[in-house]
Amino acid sequence: MATATDKKAIHLIIERQKDPESESYKEEFSIPYSPNMNIISALMYIRENPVNKAGEETIPVQWEMSCLEEVCGICSMVINDVPRQACSTLVDELEQPIRIQPMRTFPVVRDLIIDRESMFDSMKQVKAWIPIDGTYDIGPGPRMNEKKRLMAYELSKCFTCGVCLEACPNVNDKSEFLGPFVFSQVRLKNAHPTGEMNKEERIEGFMEDGGLQGCGNSQNCVQVCPKGIPLTTSIAAVNREATLQSFRSFFGSDKY
User: Fold this and answer.
1) pLDDT at residue 13 tops 90
2) What is the mean pLDDT of residues 229-234?
3) Is-contact 32 8, C-beta < 8 A?
4) pLDDT value, residue 253
5) Edge-to-edge strands of the sheet including 76-79?
6) Which pLDDT tens digit goes with each residue over 126-182?
7) What's residue 165's pLDDT?
8) Tell me, what's the pLDDT at 7?
9) pLDDT classification of 54: cutoffs 50, 70, 90
10) Domain residues of the chain, as ranges?
11) Residue 224 above 80 pLDDT?
């Protein structure tokens, strides 16, 4: 198949949907090629020139963007069958025709816009925050050792883009699995010197329905994560903590 640089035009096939209740359909576009274009640039051209490949005027494609530098995660979509960020996906690196679809793991609002609220509901279940009462000055917090700090920094790169959920075969309408990103969220908050005080609550939350038992260890998540977060390492670490917590609960002992 041809790449974008082989021709002076870019051929796009975009999966569209008028609203959450409507059937999806595909619409093709042909736009002028420019060097170093990303997918957002292509969508912006269509927004300014809403004419499809057949030369018919159409409604501009709807999508979301914010930071345009792979920080917000809001422009996640499926591009040539791979879930990724539209802002960091270059047209020059893709085969044509370029196929763009919304991430179907989430409810589609319109065209490429999705509703990722379920991810934040998952974070609520595992209490993925550091609870600190009051806003008064309580002095500096405890320090992390350097090894743990470096590990936590890698985990903190997660920006809830949802790409790992789209790639995971265990996240579907027949499963309650919260998704791969939750492992690293739990591990990150439990690694924090203050967050460690609520460690057991987070593990318990993740041992409930939809938690760690839903993971099939396919490792698709680590292949697509745009930040290279060590998700499989987090899966192993959280599974170990859950096993130890189960022993402690069963035997009523703190020796594990």
Assistant:
1) yes
2) 94
3) yes
4) 60
5) 25-32, 9-16, 98-101, 76-79, 82-85
6) 999 988 776 667 777 788 899 999 999 999 999 999 999 999 999 998 889 999 999
7) 96
8) 55
9) very high
10) 4-114, 117-251
11) yes
Tokens representing 30? Answer: 């042909």
Identify which of 2, 4, 95, 1 has the alpha carbon closest to the alpha carbon of residue 41.
4
User: Residue written as tokens 């038992």?
Assistant: 213
Type of residue at 181: F
Fold of 117-251: Fumarate Reductase Iron-sulfur Protein; Chain B, domain 2 (1.10.1060)
Is 117-251 the same fold as 4-114? Answer: no
Question: In this structure, which CATH number among 3.10.20.30, 1.10.150.120, 3.40.50.300, 3.40.50.720 belongs to the domain 4-114?
Answer: 3.10.20.30
CB atoms within 10 A of CB 246: 13
Q: What is the DSSP string of 144-189?
A: PPHHHHHHHHHHTT-----HHHHH-TT-STT-----THHHHHHHHH
Provide the β-strand partners of residue 10: 31
* Beta partners for residue 98, in sequence order: 12
